[in-house]
Write a structure and sequence with these properties.
The protein has 2 helices and 10 strands, in the order E-H-E-E-E-E-E-E-H-E-E-E. By secondary structure, it is mainly beta. It has one domain: 2,3-Dihydroxybiphenyl 1,2-Dioxygenase, domain 1.
Length: 148
């Protein structure tokens, strides 16, 4: 494989929020992201942003109740606009799942699981994992490798 462009991981995800302008600082406070790039539209909406956590990158932009904006004719929505439905979740490795969870909880994340150790057996690995919902109901998994 060819190397990725400088500063880009091989895989990144895009998430849509009813108010990306509100979500971006919250994601930084709660989960420890840093803003790498933010492009605002003339109407004040976030057209594109790139948030980083170590080498991980997630793009955050608007996807409100009305189905706008759209790309390629596909309406983009936040889980809030879909009665909390999620079609994917994001998983990120962290150094200390307990401390990260406490930070997220303090910022108002809804903790839906853990932190607890998930042991996949001696031939595989064990992780301390917790799951959290953000402001719009996106499901995030934060994982600390404890064996393997």
């Amino acid at each position: 494989m060819k190397p990725t462009p400088a500063g880009w991981p091989r895989l990144s995800s895009a998430l849509y929020y009813e108010s990306a302008a509100r979500a971006i600082p919250w994601l930084c406070e709660a989960f420890g992201f840093e803003v790498q790039l933010r492009v605002d539209g003339e109407d004040g909406s976030v057209v594109h942003s790139q948030l980083v956590y170590g080498e991980a990158l997630v793009m955050v932009s608007e996807g409100g109740k009305d189905g706008k904006p759209q790309r390629f004719g596909i309406p983009l929505r936040s889980p809030k606009a879909l009665r909390a439905a999620n079609t994917q979740s994001v998983m990120i490795f962290v150094d200390d799942a307990d401390a990260h969870c406490a930070r997220a909880r303090q910022a108002g994340a809804t903790i839906v699981h853990g932190p607890q150790v998930e042991d996949y057996g001696p031939e595989y690995w064990a992780d301390k994992t917790y799951g959290a919902l953000d402001l719009d109901g996106h499901l995030w998994w934060f994982v600390e490798r404890v064996r393997g």
